[in-house]
């Protein structure tokens, strides 16, 4: 338990540094939006491309990992759909519930994997991210598009997905891997950029936390948080056990499953008419809850 907590302390410490720095106006309000754009459009794509281009994508285990991710997402998505009627909320609130229950924070996932499992874990994390990122984005868009009248907004949203830097980075990394990898000099350059992604990404996540959004929260927030932070990793453990994944692959899959929802979910909620204030509350609450649940979940499922 102590080993897990000590490994995660730097991750959550950077979240808090970002939170308090922005609240105290340091280094200035104009810093955070460009920093988030730099991380999202350059640094994290560099990390994903470099990791995937070097990953061992052949063999049975890679296929098992892909299958495990798809089964996991299908099971949890099915649970969310079954809860739609019992929740008794409107469509906008349900879309925030769905995103809060399904999506994961890439920044925190990769930083946690790096802290606990070092470089070997990051390679598997890149494979999992390459499957999860596009599939989850598509699932969330389909949930929005299922409501009558939202199909008019589907085309620009699909265009945004097709130009999503993380999705493009995943496909580019896989393609480069199949072509034999990157030249050593280019790989070293992307490696340096990738090293910047984790700390700056965590600072940006912390800076985006909005405690004021929690005032408008309700039971949807707590139910989605329970699914995302507790049920999701438990199901991931069952899938990993059932498919007999290696210990390392199982640990990385569970780490991804235990992550709080993505901050980008708020942008999608605003673009497609979801409940953006509820989404902001879910993001903030889950990020704070995760500081407690991630160590407990990883210890319990170890």
What do these coordinates show?
The chain has 13 helices and no strands. It is an all-alpha fold. It has a single domain, classed as Up-down Bundle (Na+/H+ antiporter like fold). The longest helix has 40 residues. The protein is globular. The N and C termini lie close together (10 Å). Its main location: membrane. InterPro entries: Mem_transp_PIN-like, Na+/solute_symporter_sf.
The CATH topology is Na+/H+ antiporter like fold
Shape by Cα distribution: globular
Strand content: under 5%
Distance, first to last CA: 10 Å
Task: Decide which structural class fits the backbone.
Answer: mainly alpha
Concise synopsis of the structure shown:
The chain is mainly alpha-helical and 302 residues long. Helices cover 80% and strands 0% of the residues.
What's the topology here?
Elements: H1 2-23, H2 29-54, H3 60-82, H4 84-87, H5 91-102, H6 106-145, H7 154-162, H8 165-178, H9 184-208, H10 219-243, H11 247-257, H12 265-271, H13 276-300
Helix pairs in contact: 1-6, 1-9, 1-13, 2-6, 2-8, 2-9, 3-5, 3-6, 3-10, 5-6, 5-10, 5-13, 6-7, 6-8, 6-9, 6-11, 10-11, 10-13, 12-13
